[in-house]
């Protein structure tokens, strides 16, 4: 992997991780177009640079992480359904991850949902994005949909928060916060499986990738909160459908697209 490929993938990760557009779908397209999706280190790299994205949330919302122990318990309750379902369905999820077609179809289906979600949940005035334990659990149940590759963890949790009475801004913010334990566990698990394959010359690329994803994710989060509050989810729904159709079109034209 070259320096420019490292930077491009890190930018894509930072831009897409917290937006409801599926970072998985974008990583498939970008890594395949660059011809590096088949390399083992590519998968390790993409997994590891999620840590930079995690740190961006802690950096932006650090006050939330020092407010009370109750906050951590609610994050745990929100993470629990995903953690249990991921453990029980691990083999099924890994099998689904092998299918680029599944990712493309989920992108399109999720996009259709986002086209109409604003009509079902009218936006409300700003409110605290800290849920009750019951609300955190229900949002966590929605996060389980993200086990289907292409659904988007952020999209699933934001829709879940809307069903619990959150406005768009608060739904997005709690989605970011819930991403911290969820992505940390996923990243730690994947790195534990692959750390032995990391060579000494790869360490610089990992450090650069995490630094770039951290900076880009901060900008993406700030942009997204303002954009979502003003315009809603519809544009992201349209974008998801376009990306899903592009992937299906590439498959139909015989392009070899691999999941990293």
Automatic annotation (TrEMBL):
<keyword id="KW-0573">Peptidoglycan synthesis</keyword>
<protein>
    <recommendedName>
        <fullName>Undecaprenyl-diphosphatase</fullName>
        <ecNumber>3.6.1.27</ecNumber>
    </recommendedName>
</protein>
<feature type="transmembrane region" description="Helical">
    <location>
        <begin position="6"/>
        <end position="29"/>
    </location>
</feature>
<dbReference type="InterPro" id="IPR003824">
    <property type="entry name" value="UppP"/>
</dbReference>
<keyword id="KW-0961">Cell wall biogenesis/degradation</keyword>
<keyword id="KW-1003">Cell membrane</keyword>
<feature type="transmembrane region" description="Helical">
    <location>
        <begin position="41"/>
        <end position="65"/>
    </location>
</feature>
<feature type="transmembrane region" description="Helical">
    <location>
        <begin position="96"/>
        <end position="117"/>
    </location>
</feature>
<dbReference type="Pfam" id="PF02673">
    <property type="entry name" value="BacA"/>
</dbReference>
<keyword id="KW-0378">Hydrolase</keyword>
<comment type="similarity">
    <text>Belongs to the UppP family.</text>
</comment>
<keyword id="KW-0046">Antibiotic resistance</keyword>
<feature type="transmembrane region" description="Helical">
    <location>
        <begin position="237"/>
        <end position="255"/>
    </location>
</feature>
<feature type="transmembrane region" description="Helical">
    <location>
        <begin position="71"/>
        <end position="89"/>
    </location>
</feature>
<keyword id="KW-1133">Transmembrane helix</keyword>
<keyword id="KW-0133">Cell shape</keyword>
<keyword id="KW-0472">Membrane</keyword>
<feature type="transmembrane region" description="Helical">
    <location>
        <begin position="204"/>
        <end position="225"/>
    </location>
</feature>
<keyword id="KW-0812">Transmembrane</keyword>
<comment type="function">
    <text>Catalyzes the dephosphorylation of undecaprenyl diphosphate (UPP). Confers resistance to bacitracin.</text>
</comment>
<feature type="transmembrane region" description="Helical">
    <location>
        <begin position="174"/>
        <end position="192"/>
    </location>
</feature>
